[in-house]
Structures are given as structure tokens and as C-alpha cells.
């Protein structure tokens, strides 16, 4: 079949994985620290709006495309010289799987609960809404920042290993 499909899937997985790791990293080092300095109303309103805005095609292509592309790279690497990247691809898949698990088990339900608080003018205690959300969400976002960044690192190293098999 040739090296092009394997190389293409590996490059695409690395790019999308890097985009996702960068997204979570940006929340960890700028968005959430910036919002920490705001009042309760601004915090809740901003996070509610972000949680709606992020549900778009560009996000889903990277977020859900990454594991598909990693699996494709694994399948295309099962033969010949491609096998040398398999340990790194499997590690990336496991780490990215942890990212997905944290997102779907923790962050998404917290986002949904924040959205369910309703319109700000009808929320009797914005401080309580924020209190139930902020610290836990930040903590678990840090976990998925680490797991997605580690997955990205494994994909980068898989590219390096793959490159050495081409020469």
C-alpha cells in the first residue's frame, strides 16, 4: 500500500491531537486563571457562553477526529516497517482515551449542570453555582491537559520513529 497513507494518518493525528492539547492548555494557563479574577455573574455567564460556542464542527473534527486518526495510523502501521511506531501509537491512544473519559465523565456533565442553572437573572445564588463548578472543572481540565499533551508527545515521537524508518 505504500508509506503515504500511514504517514498522512500519523501527521493528521498529530496535528489534531496537538490542537486539542493546546485547547486544554489554553484553558489551564489563561482562560480559567483570567476568569478566576472575575465576579460570579461574569464567570458563570462566560462559561455558559463558551460551553455553547465550543460545540462546533471545527472543535469536533479535532476532538473526535484524533482517536479515529490514531486508530487508522495503528491499522496502517501493522505491516512492515510501520510496526516500529506501534508502541507510541498505542500509548497515544490510551492517553487520548483517558482525555475522552475525563471529558465525557466529568467536564461535560459539569458544563451541562452549569448550563442548567439557567438564565443569570433567575439564578438566586450565582456564587453557589460557581462554587459547585469552578474548582472541580479546573482540576479535571488539568488532568485532561496532561493526558492530551502526553498523547501529543507520543504522536510526535511516533513521527520521529516513522521518519527514521523511511530513510
UniProtKB/TrEMBL annotation:
Instruction: Tell me where the transmembrane regions lie.
Output: 7-28, 57-78, 85-106, 142-161
What organism is this sequence from?
Sphaerisporangium flaviroseum
- Tree of life domain: Bacteria
> What are the UniProt keywords, alphabetically?
Membrane, Transmembrane, Transmembrane helix
The protein's name in its UniProt record:
DUF1772 domain-containing protein
Q: Does Cell wall biogenesis/degradation count among this protein's keywords?
A: no
Amino acid at each position: 500500500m505504500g508509506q503515504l497513507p500511514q504517514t498522512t494518518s500519523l501527521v493528521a493525528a498529530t496535528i489534531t491531537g496537538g490542537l486539542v492539547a493546546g485547547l486544554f492548555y489554553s484553558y489551564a494557563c489563561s482562560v480559567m486563571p483570567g476568569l478566576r479574577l472575575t465576579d460570579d455573574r461574569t464567570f458563570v455567564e462566560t462559561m455558559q457562553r463558551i460551553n455553547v460556542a465550543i460545540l462546533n464542527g471545527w472543535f469536533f473534527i479535532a476532538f473526535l477526529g484524533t482517536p479515529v486518526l490514531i486508530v487508522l495510523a495503528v491499522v496502517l502501521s501493522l505491516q512492515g516497517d510501520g510496526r516500529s511506531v506501534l508502541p507510541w501509537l498505542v500509548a497515544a491512544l490510551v492517553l487520548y482515551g483517558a482525555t475522552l473519559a475525563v471529558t465525557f465523565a466529568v467536564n461535560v456533565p459539569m458544563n451541562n449542570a452549569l448550563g442548567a442553572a439557567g438564565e443569570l437573572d433567575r439564578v438566586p445564588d450565582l456564587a453557589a453555582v460557581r462554587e459547585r463548578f469552578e474548582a472541580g472543572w479546573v482540576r479535571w481540565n488539568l488532568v485532561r491537559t496532561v493526558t492530551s499533551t502526553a498523547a501529543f508527545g507520543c504522536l510526535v515521537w511516533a513521527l520521529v520513529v516513522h521518519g527514521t524508518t523511511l530513510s
